Amino acid sequence: MKIMIVTEAWDPQVNGVVRTLKMTTRELESLGHEVRVVNPDMFFSFPCPTYPEIRIALATRAHFRKIIDGFDPDVLHIATEGPLGWAARGVALERGWRFSTGFHSRFPEYLHMRIRLPLSLSYALLRKFHNAGVATMVPTPVMLKTLDALQFSKGVLWSRGVNTDVFHADGDRLPRTDKPVFLYVGRLAVEKSVEDFLSLDLPGEKWVAGEGPSAAALRRRYPEARWFGLLSGDDLARIYRSASVMVFPSHTDTFGLVMIESMACGTPVAAFPVTGPIDVLGDGPGGVMHTDLRQACLQALKLDRKQVARYAQKFSWAAATRQFLGAVRPVTDSRTVSALPQPRLAGTRND
Description:
Blueprint: E1 2-6, H1 16-30, E2 34-38, E3 44-48, E4 51-58, H2 61-71, E5 75-78, H3 83-95, E6 100-102, H4 107-115, H5 119-131, E7 135-138, H6 141-149, E8 155-157, E9 181-185, H7 194-198, E10 205-209, H8 215-221, E11 226-229, H9 233-242, E12 245-248, H10 257-264, E13 269-271, H11 277-281, E14 287-289, H12 293-300, H13 305-312, H14 317-327
Parallel strand pairs: 1-2, 1-5, 5-6, 6-7, 7-8, 9-10, 9-12, 10-11, 12-13, 13-14
Antiparallel strand pairs: 3-4
């Protein structure tokens, strides 16, 4: 099967959306599918204001028609709601094609934090975008319920996994003292609530791995923290293993891939009891949720790292990719695509 994935999130960005799409592509190709990822590198683009590592691509429908026709996909999945996503959606609608979409991030909340754009306007636009497709893939059951309440009509679960070839508990660690090390991994941006972590009165050290628009201001305000910059692959796994607790202070993430990467390395997670952590951590032994983040951090120190690592093994990219394949649909009835199970819509059971 020929699968086209359209996304604004791609290299050189390092984030959960990019890792999700890359690992899904790898899994799909290992199953024998042919995948084409349409990304900003294929168009004229410019840096997004306040997010320079994100490129805004200028894509006309005519250009997009040529790219689509050159690949002739059996399946079209639109992963992001930027200019590329809208262009792909426009071509699909004018041809009467079916397509699926992905809801990876709570951009309405992010925009509201930055420019005070009313949530009602942002969500109205996103409803129009996603409800035109056959499935809106979201990473957690809580997000399914959230979107259902906001009148998104095509919600279907597409979970996440962890690359255990890279993220595992057995491996080298960074030198450190016997004092606890509390680690943050992710973008340094206002929506990530990194200050909720850095401002805590905690014993030991605070480490930060990541970059973003808030990096310079945070470094100036919290010089006592140890700043590692952007890490990936083995370097990222090493810092996970070296930490005592990985702190996830975000209130808005839809999943939080860093949580399962950390747990796979044996490092427990401390988080608020909000969307993302509720589904990822649940009542399992992988971390602690508390409305008082400091208490969550201190309680997480007591968790058994072996049990933490075992808990992370429930998340696999193979299982997540099976969910993806269960949700996509051939662009037209004439496509000779093998029968696929119907997606589970929000509010229904998948027995």
